[in-house]
Amino acid sequence: MTVTVHRARAVLSPGTPPLVDGAVAVRDGRIAAVGRFDDVISEFPDAAVHEEDGALTPGLVNAHTHLQYTDMAAVGRAAHDGFESWMGAFMELYPLPRDWSASAAAGAALCLRAGTTAVAEIVTDAEAGSAVHESGLHGIAFWEVLGWTESAWRLGGPETVRAQLGALPTPPTVGLSPHAIYSLDTEVIRELSRLAAEWGVRQHIHAAESAWEDAYVRTGTGDLAERWRANGRGEFALLSGNGVGTGVIPYLDSLGALTPTTHLAHGIYVDTDDRRLLRDRGVSVALCPRSNAVIGLDPPPIAAYLREGNAIAVGTDSLSSSPSLSIWHDVAALHRLAREQGYAAPDLHARLFHAATAGGAHALGLDAVDPTGILQVGARADLAVFPVSATTPEDALAELVENGPAEASLTVVGGHLRWRTPAREERMTANV
Ligand SMILES: [Zn+2]
């Protein structure tokens, strides 16, 4: 079996000391060795050696995105002053005829260029469902479920969703994404959680993203509640019952939606008790700070999540609410926010690096199947190389976290070369 060795002046993996002049050996889609180049090459003296220019890391995990909206970047390039104005701009473009398949494929290609090797991808229109499969990205395609009232659901909802889920091409693994607490009736969310367990699939839910949503769940009031009543959704239990008097997190918990096989997106409007409940339930949160800023929302409480020890991951959300699909750019935003929110501990670089790699793999449950998001012998060969100007591994980590590049110079998924900067295109082979 052919062995390929990628040699880089800095090799970084969460939870292990950085390596100077390090190398990773890849064989049959897995990592066969990690260490100093001299040691790795003595173990595999016949390996093909690729001299990489930059810092080699595990592939990044984008723990929340919607690749099908890549073609709607005009919405994400504008500034909005809240969820209502953003949704208005989104809904002007969403109904227009569009090639969702091509749009999602373009998004998958951008992810690979950004050094991302696994995604939590939300599929809303079935034509977009093949993008992750065809790109070779690792991760989960979550079928988005939204708009169901309880009465409609009783007329065949489970059968419909089961068929939609079954139509998604695999790999990747498939999952369910109950969209949000305001777009599905209470009993539908409860039943989806039960069905997800029965069908053995994970769930991914937008939660605690806007103040709108908070008022909606507590009292069934506010702009969002009025908009939904006007749109004929007044029979949703939260609207007819004037809310449940709690925030989004306890509400989801009361429906059985918070389990270790669920991860949330956003998690902005959460207090100390909510964060404790998420830890108790083993639920990770994918933070998407640039999307929150584009929409005009508050920033996530990253410092509190770090201090209290919540499991966090990083997502870009889609280009309809973010300037790019670069995970490093969201990591840089989280770094700035953490410092602004008073997080002064020296482990910030290491923890945000962990969130973008192993933390993302854990959020998606990928690490329950295979070691993923770390560089260790036997792990999936999901890796990336990023250009850096720093000369020491410690400085390279700081540079990646605070000002990481938009584009990788190399992206390898499961041992397959999926991206290399064109200048070195001549070295491309089908497998590495
Ligand atoms: Zn989203």
TrEMBL record:
<protein>
    <submittedName>
        <fullName>Cytosine deaminase</fullName>
    </submittedName>
</protein>
<dbReference type="GO" id="GO:0046872">
    <property type="term" value="F:metal ion binding"/>
</dbReference>
<dbReference type="InterPro" id="IPR050287">
    <property type="entry name" value="MTA/SAH_deaminase"/>
</dbReference>
<dbReference type="Pfam" id="PF22039">
    <property type="entry name" value="HUTI_composite_bact"/>
</dbReference>
<dbReference type="InterPro" id="IPR054418">
    <property type="entry name" value="MQNX/HUTI_composite_N"/>
</dbReference>
<dbReference type="InterPro" id="IPR006680">
    <property type="entry name" value="Amidohydro-rel"/>
</dbReference>
<keyword id="KW-0378">Hydrolase</keyword>
<keyword id="KW-0862">Zinc</keyword>
<dbReference type="InterPro" id="IPR011059">
    <property type="entry name" value="Metal-dep_hydrolase_composite"/>
</dbReference>
<keyword id="KW-0479">Metal-binding</keyword>
<feature type="domain" description="Amidohydrolase-related">
    <location>
        <begin position="56"/>
        <end position="413"/>
    </location>
</feature>
<dbReference type="Pfam" id="PF01979">
    <property type="entry name" value="Amidohydro_1"/>
</dbReference>
<feature type="domain" description="Aminodeoxyfutalosine deaminase/Imidazolonepropionase-like composite">
    <location>
        <begin position="22"/>
        <end position="47"/>
    </location>
</feature>
<dbReference type="GO" id="GO:0016810">
    <property type="term" value="F:hydrolase activity, acting on carbon-nitrogen (but not peptide) bonds"/>
</dbReference>
<dbReference type="InterPro" id="IPR032466">
    <property type="entry name" value="Metal_Hydrolase"/>
</dbReference>
